[in-house]
Design goal:
The chain is mainly β. The chain is built from no helices and 10 strands. The strands form 3 sheets. A 4-stranded antiparallel sheet has the order 1-8-3-6, with no helix packed on it. A 4-stranded antiparallel sheet has the order 2-7-4-5, with no helix packed on it. A two-stranded antiparallel sheet has the order 9-10. It is elongated and about 60 Å long.
Amino acid sequence: MTTIAAGASATVTLAQGSTLKTTGTGVAVFGPGSHANQQVGLQGANTLGPYGRDRVIYITATTQIDYTDSLATGPIIVSSSAPSNSDGKPDGTIYIQTA
């Protein structure tokens, strides 16, 4: 567990497929990418992620924030009922869902 003091900031790089669990109050701002500058208010216990690629998250703490990051785990379910093309053969789409 890592701690960010009240009034301080930190930059966290969250690896693809990982989650960031925080406790405390503050604001998380996403860095470069499709969610750039998106803000998430943090209050109490929060979980950010998992995301399909690495994310840079800037955290500013109003109160002390404790955080941990870890690889999301859980069974992976692959559907066997993928859509078919007009010839009746699968179109190559693979659906993956984590439970």
